[in-house]
Amino acid sequence: MKKETSNKLFILILTIITAVFVFGILGVLNVDSRFAAIFGIVVGFGLYAIFLKRQGTPKKKKDLRPVSDKREAFYKSQGLSDEDITFFRDTMNNAKKQILQVERNMNSAGKMKAIANRNNTLHLIKVLFKDIVNEPGRLHEVDQFLYIHLPSLADLTEKYVTINQHQAKSKQTFDVLEKSAATIDDMCQQIAEDYIKFRSADISDLTNEVELAKRRLNRDSTSIENEEI
After folding, report:
1. pLDDT single digits (tens) 20-76
2. What is the DSSP string of 93-158?
3. CB of 132 within 8 A of CB of 125?
4. What's the pTM value of the predicted model, to 2 decimals?
5. Considering the chain, what is the average pLDDT of its residues?
6. Which residues are within 8 A (CB) of 81 and not within 5 positions of it... i.e. 6 or more apart?
7. I need a surface site. Which of 17, 22, 83, 187 has the fewest CB within 10 A?
8. Nearest residue to 155 via CA among 194, 183, 190
9. d(CA 13, CA 7)
10. What distance in Å separates the CA atoms of residue 181 and residue 157, rounded to the nearest whole number?
11. Which residues contact 164 (CB under 8 A, 6 or more apart)?
12. Cα separation, 106 vs 150, whole angstroms
């Protein structure tokens, strides 16, 4: 409250100075003193009103809650700076909105549901989202998913649903819907590849573990006769 009062007082003083300055300039230009005084007052109070309006305009609330201490500690442990954390959270918050949009769109049209089920799209984008959140240091590895494939899917499904809701459809409309569905199907397959690519290290590790287990099994099976018990 004290800070707000101080700001208003500062603005008022600045406004008075401005009014006096305008009055002085007009006086130098030999403008009628009465008119100069009135004009200076009008300008001063006009500026005062503008400043107060700007000061009183509420700031737009962010839809992203402040990071929790636990989560911030996790991000810090992953090597993220304060700027990195802000960027990461904003990026993932935007991705979350797009995922929810894709889910709404795909659940609102039979054709979209079929495509989503065939490609397991909704499950994959949610799992990939969670994986990225848990591995923030790998954000750069999913730039295609976050900045191209997911936004494109959200946009394409939104347009498909809009056109599909038209009460009357021409042959051209059906052709557009069919082409859009094919493109959406391709995009869903691309997102599946994004997921596989992100988890390729796990798959590689699993393959190596299997091979190691096989070698151990073969070695153990051939030397069991000499094993002491």
Report:
1. 655 565 565 555 555 555 555 555 555 555 655 555 544 444 567 888 899 999 999
2. HHHHHHHHHHHHHHHTSHHHHHHHHHHTHHHHHHHHHHHHHH-GGGGGGGHHIIIIIHHHHHHHHH
3. no
4. 0.62
5. 76
6. none
7. 83
8. 183
9. 10
10. 8
11. 109, 111, 177
12. 13
Count CB neighbours of 155 within 10 A: 15
- pLDDT, residue 146, reads 94
Measured between alpha carbons, how far is 76 from 88 in angstroms, rounded to an integer? 12
The conformation of residue 8, written as its DSSP 8-state character, comes to H
3-class SS shares of the chain: helix, strand, coil, % to 5: 85, 0, 15
Which of 22, 24, 26 is CA-nearest to residue 45?
Answer: 22
Percent of the chain with pLDDT over 70: 60
* Domain map (residue ranges) of the chain: 2-56, 80-212
Please name the amino acid found at residue 196.
I
Structure tokens at 217: 């099994």
Give the CA radius of gyration of the chain: 32
Place of tokens 């991000």: 75
Contacting residues for 207 by C-beta, under 8 A, at least 6 apart: none
